[in-house]
Amino acid sequence: MVSQRGTLEVVMATFNGAAYLQQQLISIESQTWRPDRLLVRDDGSSDGTIALLKSWSETTAGWLQLLPPDGLQLGCCGSFAALLAMTQAAYVAVADQDDVWEPQRLERGMVVLQAEELRRGCFAEEPAMLLHSDATLINAQGVSLHLSLWDWHGLGKVCPGLAALAVGPRVTGCTMLLNQACLKQALPIPEQVVQYDWWLALVARHANGLLELPEALLQHRRHDANTSGPIRWIHLRQKWQRWLAIRRQWLAFQSRFSVTVSQRLAWWSNWALRAYVDGRI
Description:
The protein is α/β, with parallel strands linked by helices. Helix content is about 45%, strand content about 20%. Strands 1, 2, 3, 4, 5, 6, 7, 8 and 9 form a nine-stranded mixed β-sheet that branches. A hairpin with a 5-residue loop joins strand 6 and strand 7 (about 145-150). The radius of gyration is 18 Å and the shape is globular. The protein starts with 7 loop residues before the first strand and ends with a helix. The model has no long low-confidence stretch (mean pLDDT about 90).
């Protein structure tokens, strides 16, 4: 087993998540590789979320750290961008408020990630690396939907190329574990991004550091309040708006990392294929 090296933190954005939050907090606190800190930002909850988080902060002696309210509603992407900008840990895992982690989610991810770092001769430094896994799907009541996250999104087990990542989200934030090098390259997350996890995946893939772990390391809950999901047929106007958003994100990425012309052309051809043949974007 790879030696445990470097601090590990979990970041979580919450919003009116009291119905499921307690179970998720227990699953994170009970990890076989216990994170050094759970950093939480609430986006203006009006239910019992904040009271629950404050109680956890007190009973865990500050292990759960709730950011002071700033009066801003940033949404899912903005909240996670703010959290990622605050952590200085060597490794960072991302958590949704309503999932349930398997006990060895962090240990399994860290062993795989650090083994790859060791193979490349680094720890939490260059190159930027991000590991994401599969997950089992459960409904609002916690009952298995007998479907994996990757199957639900129609994803294979082969690491996607940069062009494929440019036109469609293929990495889900709640399954992510990344090193500090990846975080440094990704920050600050531009305002043009469609989703923070999409951006992080692009950064890691550009650095040849995107790792796929086809194991279900958590239970991903699907319910009416989810902010993510697979793209299906949408209205033509929505499709056009989404295309513009994806293009803005890609241009921001190209500007940050000086992506070559050939990669840009590959993105355009891949976009045309998915938009007009597949119909998913």
